[in-house]
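Obj.: predict assembly geometry.
Materials: sequence records (below).
Method: joint structure prediction, all chains together.
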Amino acid sequence: MTLPGLSFIAFSCPGTLFPAAPPRMVGWFGARGQIQAKRIEFVESEKRYDVIIAGAGPAGTAAGRMLAETGVRVLILDKARFPRLKACGGGLSPHIVPIVGPLPEDVLEASVGRVRFSYAGGRPFDVELEPPGIVMVMRDLFDNHLLQCAQQAGCEIREGREGTAVAAVEVVTDGGETWRSELLLGADGPMSRVARSVGLLPRRSMGIGLSAETDVSPEDLERWGGTACIDFGVVPAGYGWVFPKRNHLSCGVATTLPRLPDIRTRLYDFLDRIPATKNKIHARLQGHLLPYCDGTQTLVSRRTLLVGDAASLVDPLTGEGIHFAVMSGRMAARVIAEGRPLREYEEQVNDEIRLDLQYAARLASLFYRFPGVSYRIGVRSRRAVGFFEELLAGKRTYRSVHAELKSLFSVRFLRSIGGRRA
Ligand SMILES: Cc1cc2nc3c(=O)[nH]c(=O)nc-3n(C[C@H](O)[C@H](O)[C@H](O)COP(=O)(O)OP(=O)(O)OC[C@H]3O[C@@H](n4cnc5c(N)ncnc54)[C@H](O)[C@@H]3O)c2cc1C
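Observations (raw structure tokens):
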């Protein structure tokens, strides 16, 4: 199997994706994959892989599992040891479950059949969801399960190893190890070292999120069961959430703004307005970046592909990212396993993820610019709610709802502004 466009490289890799080449010569790559002559060196009998994946989140493990299932030799490395914490609401849209396979009982925390929307603690508005609704997980257990699936499929795993020096086909870790491969997958999250080291995605739109886990009384948990709450008036350009889990509530706030200095205070104010979470201890407080999809910058260099958050594939309207992480990981794996040109991965991501998320970005910019009015018009409208349900169930794309929502928004919005000004 050969990868088109890569024949200029002299590598020793019998039995790998590449045909045999002069022995033990390894080219190192700098920005954008150019060979840095001074770093050419010889490699003795060390272990090589077809693909190294930096990052064992949903994107990395989805890619690794699929590649290993097709016989590709994969090493997944992660700086954390699993199960590891990850700032996240842990809400999965229903269409992801068939892709990752059935979740074990201890991983599936709860299922949500109702979303309760509100604005700044005002009168709530309930939307009932078709089964299976939103699936709730805790990221430490969910990601650990996906990692085990990848390992069972045949991936080698190295935990507690941070990729510190990353060239296009070589990763040096903080422990001083060096691993080499034919291809490198950057699945290492929003601050992707892989992306930076090969000069990909130089400009990114980053939002921020803060999540916490809150123990509540069994009565409150029972009352909360099956309902996810989303309040749009908690932070500018974003929302606050409370999601039910098996034994507690997961809470948080997220914004598309790159900075929000009082984000912690805003989270506490939000939780103090809710009787079940008022005056409770909010544990495992974790902040993290949300790399929103904002265009179609390139995601591949000669031997490197970016997937998941490393490729900035978070939905700018909802903050959902796990689904796109898994999708992109699998798309990258398929292109690699089939020996197709790497740019086909990027084309597929553009066609199936990014073009649609650009419509989400347009809706987000409209919605979050005037959240109060948008909430009244958008969230409380029966038509808009129908779109939301269909989007969640994967029956609609943002593209298909954009025009309809836009006209709904503009007519009612102009009316509401005009009405007030008149
Ligand atoms: C507060 C918050 C709430 C969210 N809630 C939701 C939600 O409810 N639903 C949803 O779908 N999405 C949510 N998201 C988004 C979601 O968490 C991400 O989109 C998703 O985790 C992306 O998966 P990934 O595999 O690309 O990256 P990650 O899950 O971030 O995994 C990256 C991995 O790379 C490792 N790593 C990083 N650097 C290195 C390195 N140099 N060497 C080795 N390993 C490295 C990290 O340890 C990590 O394990 C939320 C995000 C935030 C911040």
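Conclusions so far: Residues 370-421 form one domain.
To do: check interface contacts against the pulldown list.
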